[in-house]
Amino acid sequence: MRMWLKPFVDLDGLRLLDRGTDALVFLERGGTVIKVPRLDSNYSPLHEARVLLRLQYTSRRRLAPRVFSYNPYYLRMERIACPSVDQLLEQGHMDRRSVCLMLEAALELDRLGIDHGEVARPHKHVRICGEDVVFIDFGRASTRRRPRNFTSLASFVLTHSHVLWKGLENRVWSSGGELLGILRNYKKGDPGQAYAFLEAIGCPLPEKESGPGG
Ligand SMILES: Nc1ncnc2c1ncn2[C@@H]1O[C@H](COP(=O)(O)OP(=O)(O)O)[C@@H](O)[C@H]1O
Ligand SMILES: [Mg+2]
After folding, report:
1. Biggest distance spanned by C-alpha atoms of the chain
2. Which of 33, 37, 56, 150 is least crowded, fewest Cβ atoms below 10 Å from its Cβ?
3. From the CB of 34, is ligand 1 less than 6 Å away?
4. What residues does the ion ligand 2 have nearby, CB within 5 Å?
5. What is the pTM of this model?
């Protein structure tokens, strides 16, 4: 197996960077990455590319890797080398700032009508790049499902409050379920509840997106 794999992954300067559930991701010499479907998966590079391009053209934020090229066989995109939630948790660096930025970014994805589909477990899929939060792996994303990015990430924050910043766990306990009620109302369709949630856990309020002329 090794004998077969080694020449394959070194071919044309490609290096295997990581494996996902649906695809293999290779690093190219120039620093870009190529995502290739695993033989046993339904992963569609075309689908992921379309979602990424939609994001690229509709958001002023950098929320996802830039797409360079794609076809039915692979997707070539920007490599995101920033630390993942997993790495930050491991180093004890998942602080208030990162958590708040991450929730705001999820809110923006909701606003754009894109459901990532795998942010309930943000460990590998959410990267903190300075002031930007970049989501990777839109392979199972949908523009048809109702977006649940914010509620998924917020639930992660509530269940991991003990390993996030000091004082958060106390806020969560003393809220007496109020935070869950806020999330429920957001889910029912009241977007303002997201800001109530951010405020209640101690995030500085982001600037609300203003509509045309606003
Ligand atoms: N744009 C990227 N930049 C850096 N690493 C990436 C990028 N895309 C994927 N990876 C790496 O490859 C892994 C698998 O990619 P992912 O898109 O999650 O595949 P799958 O759809 O199979 O789950 C990721 O966990 C990450 O480590
Ligand atoms: Mg993945």
Report:
1. 63
2. 56
3. no
4. 20, 137
5. 0.90
Does 65 sit in the ligand 1 pocket, CB within 6 Å? yes
Q: What angle (nearest 5°) sits at the alpha carbon of residue 23, between those of residues 21 and 28? A: 135
177 Cα–ligand 2 center, Å: 32
The CA radius of gyration of the chain, in Å to the nearest whole number, is 19
Each residue's pLDDT, cut to its tens digit, for the chain (214 residues) gives 344 444 344 456 789 999 999 999 999 988 899 999 999 899 999 999 999 999 999 999 999 999 999 999 999 999 999 999 999 999 988 999 999 999 999 999 999 999 999 999 899 999 999 999 999 999 999 999 999 999 999 999 999 999 998 889 999 988 888 999 999 999 999 999 999 999 999 998 766 555 444 3
Q: Which of 123, 137, 138, 142 to mutate to test the pocket of ligand 1 (most atoms within 8 A of CB)?
A: 137
